[in-house]
Amino acid sequence: MLNQNDLNLLQKGEPVNHFLLLKKCEIRNTKTNKQYLYLELGDKTASLNANLWDNFEEFYKQVNTGDVVKVAGSIDEFQGTPQIRINSIRKSNRKDDVLPQDFLPVSKRNPEIMKREILDRMEKISDPYLRTLMKQIFSGENLEKFLKAPAGKSWHHSYIHGLNEHTLEIIKICDLMCDIHPEINRDLLISGAMLHDLGKVEELSYETSFDYTDKGKLLGHIVISAMLINEEAKKISNFPEEIKNCLLHLILSHQGKLEYASPVVPKTLEAITLYQADELSAKVNAYKNALSSNSVSDSKWTKFISLASTDLYNHGIPQEDDEGINKTLFD
Amino acid sequence: MLNQNDLNLLQKGEPVNHFLLLKKCEIRNTKTNKQYLYLELGDKTASLNANLWDNFEEFYKQVNTGDVVKVAGSIDEFQGTPQIRINSIRKSNRKDDVLPQDFLPVSKRNPEIMKREILDRMEKISDPYLRTLMKQIFSGENLEKFLKAPAGKSWHHSYIHGLNEHTLEIIKICDLMCDIHPEINRDLLISGAMLHDLGKVEELSYETSFDYTDKGKLLGHIVISAMLINEEAKKISNFPEEIKNCLLHLILSHQGKLEYASPVVPKTLEAITLYQADELSAKVNAYKNALSSNSVSDSKWTKFISLASTDLYNHGIPQEDDEGINKTLFD
Amino acid sequence: MLNQNDLNLLQKGEPVNHFLLLKKCEIRNTKTNKQYLYLELGDKTASLNANLWDNFEEFYKQVNTGDVVKVAGSIDEFQGTPQIRINSIRKSNRKDDVLPQDFLPVSKRNPEIMKREILDRMEKISDPYLRTLMKQIFSGENLEKFLKAPAGKSWHHSYIHGLNEHTLEIIKICDLMCDIHPEINRDLLISGAMLHDLGKVEELSYETSFDYTDKGKLLGHIVISAMLINEEAKKISNFPEEIKNCLLHLILSHQGKLEYASPVVPKTLEAITLYQADELSAKVNAYKNALSSNSVSDSKWTKFISLASTDLYNHGIPQEDDEGINKTLFD
Amino acid sequence: MLNQNDLNLLQKGEPVNHFLLLKKCEIRNTKTNKQYLYLELGDKTASLNANLWDNFEEFYKQVNTGDVVKVAGSIDEFQGTPQIRINSIRKSNRKDDVLPQDFLPVSKRNPEIMKREILDRMEKISDPYLRTLMKQIFSGENLEKFLKAPAGKSWHHSYIHGLNEHTLEIIKICDLMCDIHPEINRDLLISGAMLHDLGKVEELSYETSFDYTDKGKLLGHIVISAMLINEEAKKISNFPEEIKNCLLHLILSHQGKLEYASPVVPKTLEAITLYQADELSAKVNAYKNALSSNSVSDSKWTKFISLASTDLYNHGIPQEDDEGINKTLFD
Amino acid sequence: MLNQNDLNLLQKGEPVNHFLLLKKCEIRNTKTNKQYLYLELGDKTASLNANLWDNFEEFYKQVNTGDVVKVAGSIDEFQGTPQIRINSIRKSNRKDDVLPQDFLPVSKRNPEIMKREILDRMEKISDPYLRTLMKQIFSGENLEKFLKAPAGKSWHHSYIHGLNEHTLEIIKICDLMCDIHPEINRDLLISGAMLHDLGKVEELSYETSFDYTDKGKLLGHIVISAMLINEEAKKISNFPEEIKNCLLHLILSHQGKLEYASPVVPKTLEAITLYQADELSAKVNAYKNALSSNSVSDSKWTKFISLASTDLYNHGIPQEDDEGINKTLFD
Amino acid sequence: MLNQNDLNLLQKGEPVNHFLLLKKCEIRNTKTNKQYLYLELGDKTASLNANLWDNFEEFYKQVNTGDVVKVAGSIDEFQGTPQIRINSIRKSNRKDDVLPQDFLPVSKRNPEIMKREILDRMEKISDPYLRTLMKQIFSGENLEKFLKAPAGKSWHHSYIHGLNEHTLEIIKICDLMCDIHPEINRDLLISGAMLHDLGKVEELSYETSFDYTDKGKLLGHIVISAMLINEEAKKISNFPEEIKNCLLHLILSHQGKLEYASPVVPKTLEAITLYQADELSAKVNAYKNALSSNSVSDSKWTKFISLASTDLYNHGIPQEDDEGINKTLFD
To answer: Which residues of D touch A79 (CB under 8 A)?
Structure first.
């Protein structure tokens, strides 16, 4: 466990004596042809720039982006944005006992609680075929990856454990919709909710930063999910064809529209519910993050957010206390 | 209270001795120039055609669409769809004690329970300005209309009490989202949810059938709502400008996109939540209704549903019992 | 083999003594409430209407759409379109030795030649993994279905053997593009061309008429193809991951745009080539068919073709002789 | 009244001894970490950059963007674009008798003449309800703001008095359309034209620069206008409901399409006329400005204009003399 | 000159003794297989249906659609719409002295006045090259066709002389815009306005009804106009290339957007003015016609107008007298 | 013929002693106000930057972009991209015997072979009118320009001789489609293919760089082609109107959709074939070039290609030898 102050809390002038993730490392030169080393360094709360003006060749040869480095220096400020003024820098070694993943953004919810929630909900699926399929898929390496992966590269739930956090939100919303509409097949819908973004564990890489894999860009998480479900269902004898097709349909249609990369549009009551529940969870999380990470000083308006096609407004209306954030959703 | 069997339960050959709503009444003629009277007659469960071949002139002069008539005859079937074979027909009179609204489709939920739910939730708004505004608006004639109106002409919650039923669903979804995201201002969001479709009480007429009013087509329910809120907030001294603008923004942006007739897109966390919660409630209700009212005999597929741009699939997978439909959502 | 004149060649007044496919069979009634039986009867060249005015109850109980019936009568004409005036009609029996598929539209090319072409081309794939995969997939039941299936319900190559005919055209175009551009990986492209629409054998039913299956509507042929390829490649030890992903990418992206139901857009040189070759083959075939089957008498213009968003023009400019239609494309 | 040469007329090397509006004022630093003060200074004709390299801290603390400053120096040129080389700079004080608004772009038409034109036209409205409503709205503070406001932030008529200038152009066009088409209700159309953009007086701020207000971004000028008209019409007893709804419809639909932020599309003859007249006035003004302010040296083509989705062409064809610009449109 | 009452003024029961244009003439048959002749007959004010039940074979052989026929009978009404009950009918002959064009809809403005207006305006073009080009084009057969042609098949100004009427409206609007904006090159703009739709004289046929020609559908009026101007300008020695290109650009871009079939978008100040002036003239005329010809009895709302994507509203607000309709626009 | 190594082959540190095309030449200045000369220098294989820090005034006055200059110096590298470090530079003179066009990108195919191919194919057109028209157009200056011009500014076949190379590819594809579909009129289609982009010889300038001409931007190559064909066909007596209209239709519709700037959509079998063949040739060439010229070091993925709306993937799968590139397509 890392014992150092979060980067986003340091003020101008305060000392830096931190392990940080090396996010960019490039030799640049000034207009007058002087070379220097341009760095981007971060922890899970922030990313800052820094320049090395001399004797950086040795360091430059030793490191790669994604490495953890030890930095000593102080917080400086240029043109209104904080930078790190570096006194010394070195690559971390085994004795330091630090890992790149300690520097990635992470869900604010407790991962152990979230793990228990998803496994508990799985047990409550009544249909034996679906419950068997779920337990077969959510086990071993698949389960581990699912519990750790982010739900996206940058837009919504884009932090470690984000995929499970997002999945749990959708399940909660879907269970509410089943309470309201008994016509919905609850087992089918909840199974679809659990599986809908599972392919993201192969679509995204998230060891030292969040990015798409080659497979992810060539196939997309929707089809990766579908192929996995198809394989696993084949292992269960007599798995009903109708259930399998309706479950696959849930996965394939959950982005709701062809232009959002779903190869089919929702055609069942469960499919329209899953699509809209996914939208609700994703959009609210994305706007919440965009509001906090794109703020402009002295303004209630954020920068223009291109995925929302607008800038967003942080109104100043006082609100209720934050008391619920780590409480279990399923009680 | 009307004491007769529902029209959709009558089988071919069974007698008809019913009060029914006159939905269409036109003189037509056959290819061979014989005139006859074409009628459309319905109760809240179904609409059937009927023809009068002789002596219909007197009856034709007495009635208008929207009247209740008394019909004696039997159920016939032509080309696979049931019709009414009429033996006698007359306009209803005062002694019959029947009203057109007894024949309109109506919510399956208990209106008294729903009324209590909406009023109870209103009382729980903590912000004094918002609570005062809500109580001022949801009273008298406005409240009465709100409790009775449908939420649409034909797509979702298009039945008597549908507006309140839809509003309660959204409130429930929004309260869940506030549980998950304490950053959302709960009072603001719930007030916006309660008011978002209020303008529909003037946009729609629903006395004898559901249709748009002239005002509704010229202004739209969004602007009608906004003008009403603006008027009512002016009556409350010192109503905070910031709250008023954010509340109006919720109403104006709740259809989410300009092309869906919202004059502004969602720019606050509450606004994106309300839009997505509205979508979830509306789409699930709409697809549920479309699945049941567009079925094709001997097929799991409905007719093509143009608002969904697809036909829909009634899978045969057994589901849980319907036990929750009349239980209060707020407990 | 059926020995009777094609329906589209019969003139008004000529006798009918034909086996025909029963495409529609409904009891209707006239304005004056007389019931009659409305029929649609066809062979592979045309479909005509017919009415039975009396004694049709027994016949109606015996038959289903998709059955072959024996009809005696003559060609009549009403309102400018030919009909069949029926003297007698009966359901076919085993001794008649006729099958529904004898009445479906069929490719004009020789199926045996086309079979040889596709199998020969498969043998020329140099990459051993891809050739093994192709031979594994194009065998047994899969091969049989592939050789028989149409390539669509109604727009292009919508006739028996149409899927293979369409596939062969694309292969020919793709081979030409490889001749022009040596940068294209020929084995990969040709394998993708062979497999791109294979899922249509499960997406479509084509025993007695052309329609979508439930699975086809819920999953779509693109994903059906991808799941099949994924399964089969798993059976080949050491099948290279890169080749598998690029092959799957070809299938997934071959409709070129998300809004055309491809879950990913073309991202490799082979993928853009396959998409454009598919478009070329499909559009030319579709327009050719639309021009001949939507003509309007006394006009060079067809009816409005909604898939082309225009009416089409049959200019009168004389053209070269038709000499190439049954010659093998691969020589 | 300011007595100094327009900034856009000064040549390289000429002295600067000007009051200018401070539009930007930021501390920046060079690659070699030297801090300097970056300024943007302008009058109503142009904006130029300037740098202060030393002793800027005191000045920096005294000023805010939007202040007027007194600058002495000369015109310099770097990389082909003129800059100001500053010898001395100070904040203006009361004795200088200069105001920020003296430095904003302003209509070329005489504001007094335009004021008379709009008030005269208002008097000619024959319908008593509409004339009363217009006189009630176009008075006091509303009138003052209307006469001064720009019609937009940057695209068309984006200068002081631009809102009235734009409104007068539309009125002239609408009166011509009424001459051609007597079916148009002239009073209704002209009233709608006068009011259509009135909400911009609250949507935009234009004291020291042109920008959107919070209210403007949350509600939009269309709804602000509608709420104002609704309030004012309520004060007139017996104001006819039909006229009010049609007038509100004009305002709501005047941007013509939902995707242009109108919550309803034009449904009356007056509404389609107003929309098209607005387009004509706005587009011609916008293109005229874009042609003159985006020119590229040594080219007849402007820079790419993103709102027009093209670059524009200044052809060299000689044209008639400019003689009409200040003559009254209404004579 | 035809001396008979307009068809749209005849009431049910009134006698018909009229020459009418034969717009449709088809043999149909009833459900019970009785053949009859279905006719559509019209003058320039209306079109009515009629049926001939007996002895129609001889008549059917003599006539073609587009012929004028003499009809005796009376006005009947079926299903709420008037029909003609025919007593006798015959084809017109030379002695009748009637022509098909007497039965086409025609502009309400005086064609001689409009001819004078367009020729007078042409003389006022100051640029000698443009004036010469205009006089060369607007002469002989071209001029005759231009003065007679409609401006469209059905949407706006779709009546005889409509092309000139529409062109004159645009000229009037453009002259107003030149008064407001002296930056516009008036000669260029007015020349473009005169020529912009000239190609419609070859795109449309309008002898016996309004329809597209083969050439019109294959090339479109925009390119037909451009080719004609190109040819005629080549005949004028030293015609300036810059003027020619800008004039062609006006014609090519006057539909404003690529998706409206303009091959280039407006890139000059004149081009944007012409596009918006065309839109204003076309839309107001189209909506005016749609309001009067799509009215629904007992409703202020028209039928749904697909080209406007809405139904339209005939408000009941009294308006000024129609006094200007035949007065010359240019005085 | 230029005797120097290609720029894209030079390594860091290697000497430069080259004639190069001057593509950009601007005086810039550093943050500290020092002026320098910024240059962009290239041959047909690459473009590199260079800076002159002193004594550049004389050189700057002598040259214009588009000139050839002689440069001595060496290859340097800053921030990972190569630059030229200049020791001396001078403008080329007549004795140097170098021309700007020697420095433009050029087709890899042999231009003499391509010239023979296009002329040979022209001779094989059987229809005498079309063959005469082709020979008339493809002669003299038109032919010369056609053989040299690129087919675009930057997207596909954007190199010298690219227009002919692209045209030949389309012809080959079209001939294949005629082999498959004898219903296509081969003469018409091939003539359309030859002419479809001919207008690009006037739309583009390609003497010293590739850019659009004024005429090209105002009219577009489609209409330029159409006007030329119209003129030339008028010179041939009795040129059949039907052939002329269908040929013009091919040119006008060959971009397939209105939004791609075709003023009409394809309405004949030849037109749909030409559009799809053009797409196939253009897209494959464009993606091939984009893959090679947008590569990112150490990545199989290119930069984001905005015209493809995606980044592209260079898979590592080995492919067949490049043996065919200079062989004649028509043998």
So the answer is: 26-29
